[in-house]
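Aggregate trends can hide what the representation actually does to any particular protein. In the encoding step, the backbone of a single protein was reduced to a row of integers, each denoting a local shape. The record that follows shows the chain in one-letter code together with its fold in token form.

***
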Amino acid sequence: MAEPLRIVEGPALTHQQKKDLLNRLARVEGQLRGIQKLIALAEQPSDCDAVAQQMAAARKALDRSFVQLLAASIVTQSGQAPDLEQARSSAEHLAALLDKFA
């Protein structure tokens, strides 16, 4: 079994925010392993329906992780900014990420 990731301290996200995101991604990883098994065991056309449903659920969970990452980043980075200009700059950067990847 792989050893857990070491969470480093820094201004990007709090320890708890990182822990929450890693837990969410571990659940997505489990969903993907389950999908792989469903595909490997698929025999009937109706089995594809179950695969599609699980893929959609995994995609939604990953999208939710993305939103959680950006929301946590906004709260943490804006809250830790030394001044209003830095807070604005951080918010603009995160808004650009949202626009680019969402």
Summary: The mean pLDDT is 91. The CA atoms of residues 13 and 74 lie 9 Å apart.
